[in-house]
Design brief:
The complex is a heterodimer of chains A (347) and B (381).
Chain A (H helix, E strand, L loop, with lengths): L1 H17 L2 H9 L5 H10 L20 H11 L5 H10 L12 E4 L8 H4 L2 E4 L2 E10 L6 E6 L2 E5 L6 E6 L8 E10 L2 E3 L4 H34 L1 E2 L2 E2 L4 H28 L4 H30 L9 H13 L5 H14 L5
Parallel strand pairs in A: 1-4
Antiparallel strand pairs in A: 2-3, 3-7, 4-5, 5-8, 6-7, 9-10
Helix pairs in contact in A: 1-4, 4-7, 5-7, 7-8, 7-9, 7-10, 8-9, 9-10, 9-11
Chain B lengths: L5 H15 L8 H17 L18 H13 L8 H14 L2 H13 L4 E4 L15 E5 L2 E12 L6 E7 L10 E7 L5 E6 L8 E12 L3 E2 L5 H38 L4 H29 L7 H22 L17 H11 L9 H12 L6
Parallel strand pairs in B: 1-4
Antiparallel strand pairs in B: 2-3, 3-7, 4-5, 5-8, 6-7
The complex binds flavin-adenine dinucleotide (FAD).
Chain lengths: 347, 381
Amino acid sequence: MAEHDDLASAVDDYLTRTYDGDRRRKLLDAGGWDTRLSAELADLGWYSLAVPEERGGIGASPADLGRVFMEYGRHLVVGPQLENSLLPALVEGLTPDPAGIPAALVDPGVTHDWVDDLGTLALTGRELDGTVDAVRFAVQAGVLVVLVGGTVCLVDPDAPGVRIEALDSADPGTAFGRVCFDGTVVRRVLADGGLVDRIRAWARLLLACELSGVARGALDRTVEYVAQREQFGRPIGTFQAVKHLAADMSARSTSLNNLCLAALADADGVSDADLDLISATAKAHAADAAVQVCEDAIQLHGGMGFTTEADVSWYYRRALALRGWYGDATELQHRIGTALLTTGSPR
Amino acid sequence: MTVESLEEFRARARSWLADVGPLEVPADPDARFDVLRRWQRTLFDAGWVGLAWSREAGGSGLTHAHQLVFVEELVRARAPQPVGLIGLEVVGPSIDRYGTDEQRRELLPRLLSGDDIWCQGFSEPDAGSDLASLRTRAVADGADLLVTGQKIWTSWAHKAQWCALLVRTDPSVRKQAGISYLLVDMASPGITARPIRQMTGDQEFCEVFLDEVRVPRRNLLGAENEGWAIATHTLGSERGAATLRRRVELEVALEDAVDALRSRGTLGHRARAAVGRAHVAMRVLDAQTRRTTERLLADAGPTPVDSVDKLVLNEVEQTVFAEIAALLGPLRAVPGSRPAGLGSGRWAHEHLYSRAASIYGGSSQIQRTIVAERLLGLPRG
Ligand SMILES: Cc1cc2nc3c(=O)[nH]c(=O)nc-3n(C[C@H](O)[C@H](O)[C@H](O)COP(=O)(O)OP(=O)(O)OC[C@H]3O[C@@H](n4cnc5c(N)ncnc54)[C@H](O)[C@@H]3O)c2cc1C
């Protein structure tokens, strides 16, 4: 427990010192891609945390990344953190790039309910065909990690038959690209049967942690703001209607934080089915709770909350963008209910 | 003597509960109460009641952790709670902490065994959330106090032998400063308890009228006019113990509902989504109470975080039962029916009862104000 807290507070310290408002705003204006920041975090070793020692990493569990993602959320550290931290940790044959050039996760299964809108892939032998219409940091990636059916393969972005187009993005923290394959020969097919599910489950859990940090950040900004902004001759934080909204935000943010911590504690070393359930539960709650906290945050900032001047509007757009990535509440609740009601009871 | 390990203790509790087998609980409220009171006696005789209480008080001298394990096993065995919960969870801990040796010796063993059922006479018709404004008066009369006034919502007052009663002994000072905490024998002349029917159909709580009820001064808990701090302690114990017990009860209730739905086989979209939502809510509560448990075991005392716990518990309890009850559809109104495999009577009852969670023990609005002012540090109005 203590060492996890140490890690989180080291990350917090560093970000508090070096990732100030100006820098954050620049990154958000640039759509989340900053080669200097990626190189810096790579240099600090944050991308090697959960990478096994034999692949040059520090050998911690992916669960240890959870605390780091909470801090990313709270400080609005955007960019390809998920790709850089998680993929080298789980995927054999990948190592953290020393300059922080990410791998891209080409996955038509980032959502269940919109799967028809994202495109499809097919693997025949070692040949890959098809399109995925929204891939995070595809243009920037040094390698593509492609999930096709139950298989994971590695593809070079400049291999013959690969086409990557940049897309507009409404997520201030993510650059998107469309990835098309036409008879592309993959560099490597990984044999591990459960890997596809494991990548998705960990992605889901880390996004839940990031959302927990986003909620916390929006809450903190709001508590500061309502204590200082005056109307009717007194701080608006003295009005009970404001207090109660702030208290709900606090209860929501605290419960989300606790849920993520419990999920991280439980996720280590469990079966793939349990990991799926744990991560789906955390993300289902995070998707709704973080968005709700941010909406209340904007409400309590008044007109200021509606502007790009206010941090809370950035937190909100970030929460909305992450909400559906690897499942929103509706989709995941259904998935959880199905797991509990139809398979062997995974309690 | 070394303390029994939690694993050994759990195994012993589990096998004892398996040996006594399921308890037949009648539907008739009076017969039910009698059976549950005998059940408390059975539990007490076997050493399962007052696990964390001192031996002098009639308890077993174990830890809160043992108590939690036993609650878990009891609920998992689908066995009922002992009937004297107000004594065990709410009033008893305050008597143990603030009582004289004589009070503890005389009252606590009977409280634990269920020979004495206790009720909590705090709320009044005009003093609910603003409890400190209570008006039931106690005036000196020789060695005694004479108590006159009215209480309301007093759970189990019609069955109780004793009442923890808050009274005003000094109307001339700040409202919190003039309150005393009395331990009152319900057989005293001048007390009338009249049951009120709840929307669940049960008659658990009462109006209590007090007309010049004579209470000896030695039945003061703590000093005269110093009752408010003890009342706060009582309300704190109520929240802590109830939160942890309620978590287990909810977990088991949801398991029962899932089992019922599975056994029925036909699973619509609604059932999956409802179970998903209830499961997520349940995990939220579980994660929250891990922190509560840490604080309880460390004897950390009350904090404003307890109010966050209470808000989370209320919301989860209401979500879980609302989700299950929504699966009853129109058959909710037919208690004998089993829509989707769910016993309509039970789940409609649980759902109605869950609405009280955000009212008793300090309403959700009161908790929100506490969170905003004491946890978030927002300025007072
Ligand atoms: C099932 C059940 C069992 C109970 N058992 C007992 C018992 O055994 N012993 C006992 O003493 N009491 C008991 N109670 C009473 C309970 O403690 C009170 O109902 C509770 O304190 C609320 O008081 P009230 O009912 O007078 O509501 P009120 O205080 O009148 O509140 C009405 C509404 O106004 C809101 N409100 C009040 N003040 C404020 C404020 N300052 N700011 C914002 N909103 C406010 C409340 O949140 C609530 O929504 C029980 C209640 C229930 C439902």
